[in-house]
Amino acid sequence: MRLKLWMVMLCLLMVGTVSAQQNAPVRVVDVVHITDLFPERTPRIMDMSPDGTKMVFLRPDALCIYQFESTQQDCIAAPDNLGLSQGIKPEWSPDGRFVAITEDPFRRLFESDIWLLDVENRTFIHRTDDGVYGSVLRPQDGNQPIPVDFSPIWNPVSGDLYFFRIRIASAEGSRLNDTYVFRIPADQLGTTSEPEEVAFLSNTLADHAYPVYASNRYGLSGVAAISPDGTRLAFLVRPMQAGHRDEGIWTLDLESGELEQELYLEEIVPLGMPAYTVEALQQRDSYGYVLEALDWTSDSAGLVFNVFDYSFNPALPWLSYHLDLTSGTITPLADFSDVRDAASMFTIAEGEAVSPRYDQMQAMVLLPGEGGFLRGGGDVVLNFNFDNVNQQAGISAIPLPPTGESPVRLYQFDDFEGPYPMDFYSIGGDGQTYRALLFGYVVTLERE
Question: Residue 20's pLDDT is what?
Fold first, then answer.
């Protein structure tokens, strides 16, 4: 990925300038580079707590909690049978009591369970211990399917913990792996009770061995998220067969178990794409864009999601959209359809301050509207802007739903030298003040 190519670039705290635009819904009040918080041993995998007062980060053998007010950190050593991976993001519970994490079954082929860190008691709970440890390719007695648990998702209303489970078929000639959604009720998180099956996805998604899998790079809420009203799970289906009709965004009604496809990936092409790329992409078997991450709007009636191109062609921007689930309307957050050619993508036009490439949606988080799902509205997508050709960087806001207007410029870096490699982006706050982790920066914002 392009992000990896910038690892060698020196990353320092730069003094920037804040936009004075009066229509900005939020304002940036502080920007600190992560290396200033951790000058000797800088973590790459971090997640902001829901209230924005602390963050959890990974060490090779521990999970650590950093308190912003005290600047203190507390590292809790991981058990020997928890294989921590730099490709897995820890997930805070809504009340900040627990952090959920798993091993890495898709890149390191670890047999994966759901683990919980009890932050208050500084203890780990092996929540879905199946007695299997190590490689998912390890032969099992009696050729019993191996249950692999991944992608923990917290329900923001009930506090229940949901996750995906794949039973890997090990018997020769057996059917494709089965995929499920399971739930651990909030009042049973600290117990050893068996998780409850919520849905069997393979009845509908029967053609795919791995219809759902975790990504090792994303913003928003990742590959799956539960709506703010706690009723629906949205998730990405990304089959190995590019262009498959099942590829897209699906929702699961958590009470009825009804499964529905809300978006077919290739429906979005050529929305918002540079005009010069559309014809070339249409000559391919598929457009090459892959869904990366999603999140719900605070009224539980819309989704924000982004896609990127696996060819990593710098002239093909990563794209992001708003999907209105009521009307089915899909709107680009940043529209590049007027860009004439590849050179224009990086050209700062007369009268403009930045190039089109600057507005590529490459490190996104969603700041929820004031009042949450009970009131709705006021949602803002925050994006870390970076034009690597012109060496310009900043932070912008796009109010939802998008109207086609230019992003609100919140912050402009001076003498920017490059981002710190960070695979995951997150945000937390108390309704007035928020902290976001973006491209190696801790960005503090306040509502206007």
Answer: 38
